[in-house]
Write a structure and sequence with these properties.
The protein is α/β, with parallel strands linked by helices and about 350 residues long. The protein has 2 domains: about 1-105 and about 240-339, 3-Layer(aba) Sandwich (Isopropylmalate Dehydrogenase); about 110-115 and about 125-225, Rossmann fold (3-Layer(aba) Sandwich), CATH 3.40.50. The protein contains 11 helices and 12 strands. The chain has helices at about 15-30, 40-45, 55-65, 80-90, 145-160, 180-190, 205-215, 225-240, 275-295, 295-315, 330-335, and strands at about 5-10, 35, 65-70, 95-100, 115-120, 130-135, 135-140, 165-170, 200-205, 220-225, 250, 255-260. The strands form 2 sheets. It has a 10-stranded mixed beta sheet, sandwiched between helices. Strands 6-7 form a two-stranded antiparallel sheet. Helix 1 packs parallel to helix 11 (about 330-335), helix 9 (about 275-295) runs antiparallel to helix 10 (about 295-315) and helix 10 crosses helix 11. The chain starts with a strand and ends with a helix. The protein binds 1,4-dihydronicotinamide adenine dinucleotide (NAI). 1,4-dihydronicotinamide adenine dinucleotide binds near residues 261, 265, 267 and 277.
């Protein structure tokens, strides 16, 4: 088979280091991937005025699939976040983030197995902010029937496809009666078409408490943008932190895969960052290619990589954040040794 072109955005901070590690593991798995490197974030500003250059967007539109390292958004300098912009421009309306325990990573709970499905395009991340009068600023929360319906459809379809049993909507419709009210109304309507899947609603603050008390009572979590963002980090904490949680941003025919964590400037350039979350995101990407393009080869590579990193983690061959003593590149080598 010929190599599938996939866009790779190394990103900033720890990004280039962890993407190098991931490329090494993917090459060792034999996956037929031809990386097309493009820039975003601070790396893009070295070459032009935009944090998200048109050439990067065009490349993802052309190849439809990308693996993205974390990007730094300069604070207070008028730049829109690369991630918010990317999700909007490509209409990557759903963030899908599986959260599972890994053997070898000690945590309070041992059998967490959740999937977060987050609406990616509106809510308080719509970027509609203005100064009402001196000293008074306002941010607008936006909800549309179209976006609420399609994210609910995504959650239920995903649940059915993966044999999941329950979808729980986290909301604050008791306070935000119109916006969160619309979100739960559309979720309820969609749930009626899926009688095989249990449907549940929970107020987001109570949901946080229940999650940290007993996460195993949840299965698929369906959330609007802000709650999904917050809950992703909370749930990452349940299974060992940001270094072990993968993520994807999926639209109708395009997808960008990335770890939940950021560019970690505090540890950049030290070869100590954990590449696992990005590698796990890459495994999701290979499975996506297999599901959407019918290439079994990618499932086989994804399974080999997953088995190899699971073994490495179980045997304690990891980076410092997971209790090991390996550097980023040495962790990648330890995974490759276990193929
Ligand atoms: P962060 O996720 O970069 O770091 C939080 C903490 O986790 C830090 O102590 C960091 O050292 C640690 N950490 C993160 N990833 C790690 C890894 N792979 N291995 C070991 N330790 C890791 O979050 P922070 O500090 O809030 O954001 C830093 C920058 O990243 C900001 O400019 C932010 O805008 C950006 N960011 C980008 C994201 C993306 O591109 N998807 C997502 C989140 C933040």
């Amino acid at each position: 088979m010929s190599k599938r072109k996939v866009v790779l955005i190394p990103g900033d901070g720890i990004g280039p280091n962890i993407t190098t590690a991931v490329k090494k593991v993917v090459a060792a798995s034999g996956a037929e991937i031809d990386w097309v490197e493009r820039k975003a974030g601070l790396a893009a500003l070295e070459e032009g005025p935009d944090v998200l250059p048109e050439s990067t967007i065009e490349s993802i539109k052309e190849h439809r699939v990308a693996l993205k390292g974390p990007c730094t958004t300069p604070i207070g300098e008028g730049f829109t976040s690369v991630n918010v912009q990317l999700r909007k421009e490509l209409d990557l309306y759903s963030a899908i983030r599986p959260v599972r325990n890994l053997k070898g990573v000690e945590t309070r709970f041992t059998d967490v197995d959740l999937v977060i499905i987050r609406e990616n395009t509106e809510g308080l991340y719509s970027g509609v902010e203005n100064t009402v009068s001196p000293g008074v600023v306002m941010s607008m929360k936006v909800a549309t029937e179209k976006a609420c319906t399609r994210i609910a459809e995504k959650a239920f379809k995903y649940a059915r496809m993966r044999g999941r049993k329950k979808v729980t909507v986290f909301h604050k419709a008791n306070i935000m009666k119109l916006t969160d009210g619309l979100f739960i109304r559309k979720s309820r309507e969609v749930s009626e078409k899926y009688s095989d899947i249990e449907y549940e609603e929970i107020i987001v603050d109570a949901g946080c408490m229940k999650l940290v008390q007993n996460p195993t009572q949840f299965d698929v979590l369906l959330l609007e943008n802000l709650y999904g963002d917050l809950m992703s980090d909370l749930c990452a904490g349940l299974v060992g932190g940001l270094g072990v949680v993968p993520g994807s941003n999926i639209g109708d025919n395009r997808a960008v895969f990335e770890a939940v964590h950021g560019s970690a400037p505090d540890i950049a350039g030290k070869n100590i960052a954990n590449p696992l979350a990005l590698l796990m995101s890459c495994v999701m990407m290979l499975n996506y290619l297999a599901d959407n393009e019918g290439e079994k080869h990618y499932t086989e590579c994804a399974t080999s990589i997953k088995n190899a990193y699971s073994k490495a983690v179980e045997q304690g061959a990891t980076t410092r954040d997971l209790g090991g003593d390996l550097g980023t590149q040495e962790f990648a080598d330890a995974i490759i040794e276990r193929f």
